[in-house]
Amino acid sequence: MPDGSTRPELTQDQIDQRVFDLYDEYCHGRIDRRAFLQGAAAIAGGLAMAHALLPNYAKAQTISFTDERIKARYVTYDSPGGSSGQMRGYLVTPAGTGPFPAVLVIHENRGLNPYIEDVARRAAVAGFLALAPDGLFPIGGYPGNDDDGRAMQARLEQPKLRTDMLNSARWLKAQPASTGKLGVTGFCWGGGTTNWLATVLGAEMQAGAPFYGAAAETSAVPNIKAALAIHYAQNDPRINDMGPAYEAALKANGVRFNAYTYPGTQHGFHNNSTPRYEAAAATLAWERTVALFKETLV
């Protein structure tokens, strides 16, 4: 079933937690689409729930790419040491006279899909020069559906893919329209990469807002100079189990951070293209993210 096709309309409270758990396994590549649907079919009403969880990107757009408050375009730039030496990203500039503080928006484990592009537009409307890089560009770019995108991203070498994100951050900081101050936010894989970038960029990165992302290695935490707003879903044990050690290391090294857990939420609660989306939590988490960036970057 392609993204955006007709499917059952179910709310989060109508979906069995077991189907959410299967979907999480599927999203992170631990089972394939067939196993996800077969597992869901074994639960009463589960197949309809499974189809309802597949992303519908018609719902993802909250800000049009023609919105007069922004200017959006695709850009290519060098990325030495990355997957191919070149990268492509979606650059969104606020209307008006810059320069503007910069925000890097990092996608999930499936490339630059329409939801992440919309998040970049949201950041630009809030007053930031936003870049959403497409880690799949070196092998053809986001293919138009998450299944193929997930498979493509899994084929990439993780160190080179992360290098592409590091180069994207530095390219963005160096743009004439940038003030040179940098915030980073990301979701799922992008949340983990946000944490990682904080350890690698050190003082080059002023703020980070990882959404349900893997923690950074505690041994690298002393390198973090950015202020962090860490967003957790309540029902996300794989990620949440990493939290205590990470937060202890952040405290021990004097890193400024706030960690927020949003009650009743699933991994992916900010993504408004599926029923995992929880509007109140997503809105609050984004408000906290923008507030951090305005405090530290402006």
Secondary structure elements and pairings:
Elements: H1 17-27, H2 33-41, H3 46-53, E1 70-79, E2 85-94, E3 100-106, H4 114-125, E4 129-133, H5 146-155, H6 158-173, E5 178-187, H7 189-201, E6 207-211, E7 227-235, H8 237-240, H9 243-252, E8 257-266, H10 279-297
Parallel strand pairs: 3-4, 3-5, 5-6, 6-7, 7-8
Antiparallel strand pairs: 1-2, 2-4
Number of domains: 2
- Radius of gyration, taken over Cα atoms and rounded to an integer in Å: 18 Å
The DSSP helix count reads 10
List unreliable stretches of 5+ residues.
1-7
CATH class (first level) name of the largest domain: Alpha Beta
The CATH architecture of the largest domain can be given as: 3-Layer(aba) Sandwich
- Name the beta content range: 15-25%
CATH superfamily of the largest domain: Alpha/Beta hydrolase fold, catalytic domain
Total number of β-strand segments?
8
Topology as a string of helices (H) and strands (E): HHHEEEHEHHEHEEHHEH
Helix % is: 25-40%
Helix and strand composition category: alpha/beta
Distinctive features:
298 residues; alpha/beta; Rossmann fold; 2 domains; 8-stranded mixed beta sheet; 10 helices; 38% helix; 22% strand; globular; disordered N terminus
Question: What does this protein look like?
Answer:
This protein has 2 domains: 12-53; 70-297, Rossmann fold, CATH 3.40.50. Helices cover 38% and strands 22% of the residues. It has helices spanning 17-27, 33-41, 46-53, 114-125, 146-155, 158-173, 189-201, 237-240, 243-252, 279-297; strands at residues 70-79, 85-94, 100-106, 129-133, 178-187, 207-211, 227-235, 257-266. Strand 5, helix 7 and strand 6 (207-211) form a beta-alpha-beta unit. The radius of gyration is 18 Å and the shape is globular.
